[in-house]
Amino acid sequence: MSEIREVIINNDRLATDEYLVNMGPQHPSTHGVLRLLVRLEGEKVLNIQPHSGYIHSGIEKMCEAITYPQIIHLTDRMDYLSAHMNNEAVALCVEKALQVEVPDRVKYIRTIMDELARLASHQLWWCVFGMDLGALTTFFYGLRDRELILDIFEETCGARMTVSYNTPGGLMFDIHPNFQKRVKDFIKYFRTKLPEYDKLLSGNVILRERTEGIGHLSLNDAIAFGVTGPSGRASGFSCDVRKNQPYSAYPFVKFNEILDFRCDTLARYEVRIKEMYESLNIIEQLIDNIPEGDYAVKMKGVLKLPEGEFYQRVESARGEFGVFIISDGKKNPYRVKFRSPGFSNLFALNKMTKGHKIADLVAIMSTLDLIIPDIDR
Amino acid sequence: MDFYNFTSLTHSIHEGLAKSFSPFIATTIEWVLVGLAYLTFVALFGLFLVYAERKVCAAFQQRLGPMRVGKWGLLQTIADFIKLLMKELIMPRKADWFLYNLAPFIVIIASFLAIAVLPFAPGLQSLDFDIGVFYLTAVSSVGVIGVLLAGWSSNNKYSLIGAMRSGAQILSYELSVSLSLMTMVVFAGTMQFSAIVEGQRDAWFIFSGHIPAIIAFVVFLIAGTAETNRGPFDLAEAESELVAGFHTEYSGIKFALFFLSEYINLFIVSAVAATVFLGGWMPLHFGNFESFNHVMDFIPPVIWFFMKVLGVMFIIMWFKWTFPRLRVDQILTLEWKYLLPINLINILLMALVVLTKFHF
After folding, report:
1. How far is B195 from B144, CA to CA, in rounded Å?
2. Which of A316-320, A323-327, B205-209, B274-278 shows the lowest mean pLDDT across its residues?
3. Do B321 and A133 make contact, defined as CB atoms within 8 angstroms?
4. The complex's ipTM?
5. B136-160 residue pLDDT tens
6. Å between B222 CA and nearest CA of chain A
C-alpha cells in the first residue's frame, strides 16, 4: 500500500496539474466575443487573462474623419444598451465646447430618455444574470418588460436600440404626443412587475448561496481599477456622475445614490435592482413637468469646435462614460478618446475571481455587466 | 378491475407462440417483441416529453412554445428529431474513437435496462424480480459510466469538467436515491415492484407511511432530479459555464441519444416515485368510501400510472424552470451534509414506525 502511495506522489504524471481553458471568443456566458484565458486547477480559478479586440472596430479612429454630428451615430454602436447616454455625452461635450445652452425641454427629455435606457439596460442585465446562473425563466420576464421601453424609443425616434436621438444643440425630433402617457403607463406597469423580479430570483435561496461573499472587490481595489457604475457603488465607491457632476436635468431631481458596502456579487445584484426603483422615481419627477419650448437650438450647418481639449462624462448604465475631444479648429476632431466603463470593469475580474469556482466566474462576470463592443470599441 | 388486467393477454400471446414454435424460437420472438415494444414506447414517449417540456417551460416563461409545425406545434419535435437524424456526425480529430462512439450507447442502454422493471399496469411489466428495487438502483448507476466516457473521450476540457462534475454528482446522489427507496422497502417489506404496488391497494405508501414516507418522497424527488442531471442540478451540461458539458462534441443521432436518455431518465425517476410512493397503477382509494373507490376503479390502471408519472414530471420540470443552478461544492454539500443524514435518520424512523405498527 505504501509503495503505491509513493508511486502516486513521486510520479509527476499522476499529480494534479493546472490547465488552461479558453473561455470564448465563442462562449455562451461572455455575451459576445470576449476571450478569457482561464488558468484552472480542477474547478478552481487561478488566474484570468482577458484578451479583447475580437470586435474592435476602430471607432475612435473613424471619429477623426467625420464631423461632430456624425460621431453621435458611431457612439450608438459601442455600448448599445446605453446608446442614449453615449449620444448625450458627445452632444454635451460639443455643446460645452461651443458654449451653447440648450433649452430646459431638451434637458428634461434627455434625462427621461437616459433613465429609460438605464432601465432597459438593467432589465436586460437581470435577464442575462439569471440565465448565467441557470434560471432561464428570468430571461423572458426581463425581455417582456424591456420590450415596452423599446416601443417607447421606437415611437420617439424610430429606432429601438441605436437611437441616435441626440444631436449637438438638442434633439433630432420633438417627443411623440403619446410619449408622456406611454411612459406613465409603463411606470405604473413596471412598479407592479419589479416585485416579481424579487420573488422569482432575489429571494431565492440558491441565488443567495451562489452570490453571498463571492467575488469580493474592496473599495480600494474598486478605486484602483477604476470600477465605476453599479459595480463600483456596490463596493461603496461613490462614483455616480449624476450626483457628483450633475448634467442635463439631474440637478432638478431628487434621487438617492445607491451604495452598498458588502462588495460581493449579491451587493452588485441588489444595487442594480434598487437603481431600477430610483430610475422610476427620477422619471416620475420629470415626466409631468417637461417645459414647453424648442427641442433644439438652431446650430450652424458645419460645426467647428474651437481649438482645445474638451472632456465630458456621463453616467451610463454600467459606469462612467467619458468623451475626450481634442480639436484643432476644423470640422472634424483631431483626436477622440472614449473612456468606456466596461474596459475598466473587465480588468477587475481577475482580482475578484481568484480562488473561486468556474461557476462563480460566470456569476461575477455577469454582475460586471460587460458589453463587448464597449470594451473593444 | 380484472377487465384491465393485462396478464391474460400476455399469457395468451405466450401460449400461442409456444404452440406453434419450439421453446427457443418462441422465447426469442418474445424478446424481440418486448424489445420492439419498449423501443416504440420510449421513442414516442420521448418525443411527447420533449414537446411537453417545451410547452411547460413556455407556460412558465409567458410564451406559447412551439406553435407553427402542426396544430399547436404538435409535429415540432418530430421535425426536430428528423433534423437531428439527418445531421452530419462530427468527431473531434484527436478523440478516442472507440470510447467516443461507445458512450451514447452505454447511456441509453442503462436507461432501457432500468425501464424494464417498471410495472405500467397489472401484467404489463417485463421483469418482475424479487430484488426489483435493487436492480433498478444498480442499472441506473451504469449510465454515469457513459457520461464519464463521453467527457473523457471527446478530447475537450469543457466536456471533461462536465463529466467529472457529473461523476461526483451522480455517485453522491445515488446514495440518497437508494436510501430513500430503502426506507420504503422497509415499509413495504419487499423489493419486488409488483408486490410494492400490490401493498398499496388500500392506501398509497405516501399516505399510509405518513411522516417518514413524505420525507423519503421529498428526498427522492431532490436526489432523483439530481440523478437525471436536470436543473437546478444540471452542472454536467451547465450551458452558461461549460457550453454543453459532456456532450459538447456530439452531434446528430449521437447527441439525440444523450438527449433521449435524459428524458427517459426523467420518466424513470417519475415512474419510480409514482410506483413506490404514489401507488403505481393503483387507483386512489379512501378507506370506507365504497362508492368513491368503485368509481376510481373504473379508470384503467395505465391511465392512473401515467397520470401520476406526469404529475411528478411536472414538479421536476417546475424545479428546472424556476431555480438557478447550484455550484459544484454546494451540490455535494447538500447531499453529504443534509440529505444523507436526513435519510439515515429517516430509515430509523421508518423502522420504528414499522415496529410499533404506527401506520395506516
Report:
1. 29
2. B205-209
3. no
4. 0.79
5. 888 888 888 888 888 888 888 888 8
6. 14
